[in-house]
Design a protein that fits this description.
alpha+beta, 126 residues
Length: 126
């Protein structure tokens, strides 16, 4: 879970995780744009999260990656289920050019960190 910070785009921007250590030992900060769950923003090589808000914080229900985010979200197989579970926001992270962590690795790290209920792959097993 993480709290929102200063607005920067349609609904705002958030730095949810000060740092996550990956399997390669590199710590990385992630910044997300915040959108309504019903918006499909244009982005390439992005990591996205379907989130619900609980106590002023965002709780990821599903985390995914997309080469073309708008295309990926148009018929997403988990979107309706996430909405039924309370998802109201879409959070999007796009690593910049020269980013230390590629979007594919970012997805794995975020799933391992948050263990979202709708993800199967890369989840921590208990």
């Amino acid at each position: 879970m993480f709290a929102a910070a200063t607005p920067r785009n349609a609904l705002g921007s958030v730095s949810p995780i000060p740092s996550i250590r990956g399997f390669n030992g590199i710590d990385t900060d992630y910044t997300f744009g915040i959108y309504s769950i019903h918006v499909a923003p244009s982005a390439t090589n992005a990591v996205y999260m379907f989130c619900k808000k609980k106590g002023g914080q965002y709780v990821p229900l599903y985390i995914g990656k997309a080469e073309n985010l708008k295309l990926r979200l148009t018929s997403h197989e988990r979107a309706a289920e996430a909405i039924r579970l309370g998802a109201t926001h879409l959070l999007v992270h796009t690593p910049g050019f020269g980013a230390r962590v590629h979007y594919l690795e970012a997805e794995r790290r975020l799933i391992a960190h948050y263990n979202p209920v709708l993800n199967v792959q890369y989840r921590a097993s208990f």
